[in-house]
What we know:
Layout lengths: L3 H11 L4 E5 L3 H9 L6 E6 L10 H5 L5 H4 L3 H4 L6 E5 L1 E6 L4 E6 L2 E6 L2 E4 L3 E3 L17 H23 L3 H7 L1 E5 L3 H17 L13 E6 L10 H14 L1 E5 L2 E6 L2 E5 L5 E5 L2 E4 L3 E3 L1 H10 L9 E2 L5 E2 L2 E6 L4 E2 L7 H19 L15 E6 L2 E6 L2 E5 H14 L3 H16 L10 H13 L5 H5 L8
Parallel strand pairs: 1-2, 1-7, 2-3, 7-19, 9-10, 9-15, 10-11, 17-20
Antiparallel strand pairs: 4-5, 5-6, 8-16, 12-13, 13-14, 18-19, 21-22, 22-23
Helix pairs in contact: 2-11, 6-7, 6-14
Amino acid sequence: MLTLVEEAHMTTQAGHRPRVVIIGSGFGGLFAARALKRDAVDVTLVAKTTHHLFQPLLYQVATGIMSMGEIAPATREVLSRQDNVEVVLGDVTDIDLEKRVVTANTLGEVHTHDYDHLIVAAGANQSWFGRDEFAEYAPGMKSIDDALELRGRIFGAFELAEQAAAEGRLEDVKRFTTFVVVGAGPTGVEMAGQLVELSKRTLKHDFRHIDPTDSRVILLDAAPALLGSFDEKLQDKTRQALEKLGVEVRLGAKVVNVDGRGLETEDSEGNRTRIEALTKVWAAGVAASPLAKQLADQVGVTVDRAGRIPAQPDLTLPGRPEVHVVGDMVTLDGLSGVAQVAIQGARHSAKEIRRRINGEPTGAPFRYKDKGSMATISRFRAIAEVGSLKLTGFVAWLMWLAVHLVYIIGFKSRITTLLHWFVSFIGRGRSERAVTEQQTFARLAMQQMERPVDLRKVSERPPASVD
């Protein structure tokens, strides 16, 4: 076992600067890279997307308020002025802790990256609680692709309803204009609120055969209360506000079946209820990246039910002080998978790496500073819980706007976001209503292919002839 000083000089003797590999371009990965900006290290950030996603605002992309570019700036652009960072597109498939090698795949091309220090911030995916078949009819909301698919399904449902009404198929109209959101956490609450705003304000005068204001929005959760991590009084006020908007809140309702025409719920007594609805949004449950299980197997620990890996108090792995894990894929002290946990964890890990390279003592435990929780209900109404301070209504909504603007990356994105919010919240318009069949059905088509896209085969296809 090398001492801290011996390891600190090891890379210099080998002829290169310390190599730090970061997996993931979310809050954890991006802020870890930024935190190492002034250090004499070579950082390689490997991510399976080309962008940094501001996930808390995905529902606004899905409901036509914002464009995807405003919440998903290119990672290369964000880090373009940081000379010690190289950005690599690739889906990490293997981490060899013994050899200190990360293997990634980019559309069929396999590449490896050696490291001296590793930060794994691979995040989490949507979870359907073991019923992955539900995803075909109830897509989640964890990626840009998800948001664009949902936008297509939501706006497409109104188009189908208009056609059905013109043909006199009134039962179909009811099914097409019923929207079900599964999961009453912040994402589900915000999505339900915006679906009501969309149907009652934005689309109110746009159709000739249907009245969009007659649409139903149903919010489901198996838990006995919505917004489970918030104060009980805020939970009650949120439910009252949602029901005043017209959202049907059904708690203690577990989804047991989902199909193309609707879904079925079951209450605590085993009674089942059928809801006919074309559009279902799954906002319940997350599962950590499969890399968490891979790492756990190598260090001899067990992941939890959500697939998260237990970390040491300093966010390293047992016996692997050079490996740090941050964000949604980690379980430590009951911390939730919110952006601030990932950001603060990334900065802590960067600091520990800096100390290790300098031969200084490491192992300082990660101390999370809770900056509070917020959720928006509708325009001009939100809830905020910051320590003992609990706010609702317009003041909380202004706080929500300010906090989200701060964490949107880039001055240009902040300005355009403000403009979109002004148009949508002060007026009734939404500038991002364009949808395509490709956005709506590409995910299902790719799944039916049952194989990944191989860039080499695509590039080898002969060009189409032009007669």
